[in-house]
């Protein structure tokens, strides 16, 4: 019996990701900020906390899903990135609507916050001492909401930078290696080829071989209805419209 456990990617370990570590500080800092400076009955309070939580949780969920689905991991990391963009706008709105100063890129305090981030190694072992949070405590516990909001804005920018790098790496890896489903499909085709070589009479229908390289569902022959290729046949995923993968009929 052939097994494919070797096609599983290493997964989990999200606590060692610098992106997760920074978004955890952003989440905890946002909960504290909202409790101190935003009315608890305000929709903004809940929206900001949920956006911060989504940033952290989706990194963790993507890491856990990476063993069997590169696409799911990439999608969840992108969700985390989008949630942090939403949170960033909320902090910018908070400052603008109250006439509070926003730190520029070269503001001394903004540079100091970035310095703290640079001095923390990226791939650290699991930690329980929350040393990152302690490093930012003087800003995050400040009595002035403008200081706290600007600090969290700086941290969100750091997290977004790290997530952009993470997304680019995942995209490159997916293009070069494929995901779990693609490697499993390739292994299945190789097994079929071996069976045919051993028993050439066994030439079962081609659709058994034609599986979508994205989602693994059977491919079906379709014909283009319009455009310059109208009438031309192609293989299309049976999962359409959720999956739009196609390949030419050869």
Low-confidence region ranges: 1-8, 122-129, 202-208
User: What's the total count of β strands?
Assistant: 3
* Radius of gyration (Å): 24 Å
Number of helices: 8
Order of helices and strands: HHHHHHHHEEE
**Cα separation of the termini:** 32 Å
Level of helix content?
A: 55-70%
* Percent of residues in β-strands: 5-15%
Domains counted in the coordinates: how many?
Answer: 2
The average pLDDT score comes to 82
What is the 3D shape? elongated
Question: Structural class, please?
Answer: mainly alpha
Outline the biggest β-sheet.
3 strands, antiparallel
The strand line-up of the biggest sheet is 1-2-3
Write structural notes for this entry.
By secondary structure, this protein is mostly helical. The protein has 2 domains: 5-177, no CATH class; 206-250, N-terminal domain of TfIIb, CATH 2.20.25. Helix content is 57%, strand content 5%. It is built from 8 helices and 3 strands, in the order H-H-H-H-H-H-H-H-E-E-E. The chain has a 3-stranded antiparallel β-sheet with strand order 1-2-3, with no helix packed on it. The longest helix has 33 residues, at 145-177. The radius of gyration is 24 Å and the shape is elongated.
């Amino acid at each position: 019996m052939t097994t494919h456990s070797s096609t599983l990617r290493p997964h989990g370990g999200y606590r060692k990701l610098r992106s997760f570590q920074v978004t955890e500080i952003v989440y905890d800092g946002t909960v504290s900020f909202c409790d101190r400076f935003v009315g608890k009955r305000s929709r903004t309070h809940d929206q900001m906390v949920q956006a911060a939580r989504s940033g952290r949780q989706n990194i963790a969920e993507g890491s856990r899903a990476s063993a069997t689905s590169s696409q799911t991991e990439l999608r969840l990391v992108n969700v985390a990135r989008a949630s942090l963009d939403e949170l960033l706008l909320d902090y910018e709105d908070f400052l603008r609507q109250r006439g509070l100063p926003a730190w520029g890129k070269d503001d001394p305090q903004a540079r100091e916050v970035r310095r703290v981030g640079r001095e923390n190694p990226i791939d650290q072992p699991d930690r329980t001492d929350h040393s990152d949070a302690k490093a930012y405590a003087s800003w995050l516990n400040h009595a002035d909401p403008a200081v706290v909001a600007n600090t969290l804005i700086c941290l969100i920018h750091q997290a977004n930078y790290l997530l952009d790098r993470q997304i680019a790496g995942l995209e490159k890896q997916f293009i070069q290696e494929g995901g779990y489903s693609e490697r499993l499909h390739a292994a299945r085709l190789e097994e079929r080829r071996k069976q045919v070589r051993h028993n050439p009479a066994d030439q079962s229908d081609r659709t058994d071989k034609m599986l979508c390289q994205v989602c693994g569902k059977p491919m079906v022959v379709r014909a283009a209805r319009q455009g310059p290729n109208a009438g031309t046949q192609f293989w299309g995923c049976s999962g359409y419209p959720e999956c739009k993968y196609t390949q030419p009929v050869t």
